């Protein structure tokens, strides 16, 4: 077996998104990718919106994803640390996955030093200027009171509401994503603001769904991880270089 030295980053699997048959097909591709990387992975970072909806009741979690969760369990049992970020679709993670899979759950951002390089990692939701409506909603949805209220709903009702909401998402409608230019891409703007205060070698985000790799300056890059609906992209750090790569689906 080869030496485990690579660190992998992926986001926006949106497992459980409508239509479900596409989600199951996507789950198979993700498992194939996890099988491929477990040979040389030192760590795995899943940067939010892994599930299209997730809420942990006291004794109930959303059904499904058995093969995916089983593969994560296998990877964890191999001694490969897994870090899971909350996204805007799966922000209601608590301690179930931590207890079952020993994953680290990250609420917001994470600053990480890898091989003397400083990484800033965040799902990307609610960052930058504008989008005040979502920022307000995020505060409401993250509040303990709101979570307590939702937990009072029967799971059939609560998860049913979330499923209907999912059918109207940009992913379900396959809306085309286009690069807006560095001046209009808000995550690049946010990274520039952070960089003006403190240098980071790499800024890694999800959420935007469009994969890109942009230089802020000769020593700093912004990488958006894309999604696994259309692009099947991920990033890998090999100890010296960070590359944005595409997984070729297998039949």
Tag the structure with descriptive keywords.
251 residues, alpha/beta, 6-stranded mixed beta sheet, 5-stranded mixed beta sheet, 7 helices, 22% strand
Written description of the protein model:
By secondary structure, this protein is an alpha/beta fold. The protein is 31% helix and 22% strand. The chain has 7 helices and 11 strands. It has helices at 20-37, 66-77, 96-101, 132-142, 144-151, 155-166, 186-197; strands spanning 6-10, 41-46, 82-85, 104-106, 110-114, 117-122, 202-205, 212-217, 220-224, 233-237, 242-246. Strands 4-3-2-1-10-11 form a 6-stranded mixed β-sheet. Helix 1 (20-37) runs parallel beside helix 2. It is globular, with a radius of gyration of 18 Å. The two termini are 26 Å apart.
Topology (SSEs and partners):
Layout: E1 6-10, H1 20-37, E2 41-46, H2 66-77, E3 82-85, H3 96-101, E4 104-106, E5 110-114, E6 117-122, H4 132-142, H5 144-151, H6 155-166, H7 186-197, E7 202-205, E8 212-217, E9 220-224, E10 233-237, E11 242-246
Parallel strand pairs: 1-2, 2-3, 3-4, 6-7, 7-9
Antiparallel strand pairs: 1-10, 5-6, 8-9, 10-11
Helix pairs in contact: 1-2
InterPro entries: LpxH-like, Metallo-depent_PP-like
Organism: Sphingobacterium ginsenosidimutans
Keywords: Hydrolase
Kindly summarize this structure in a few lines.
This protein has 251 residues and is α/β, with parallel strands linked by helices. The protein is 31% helix and 22% strand.
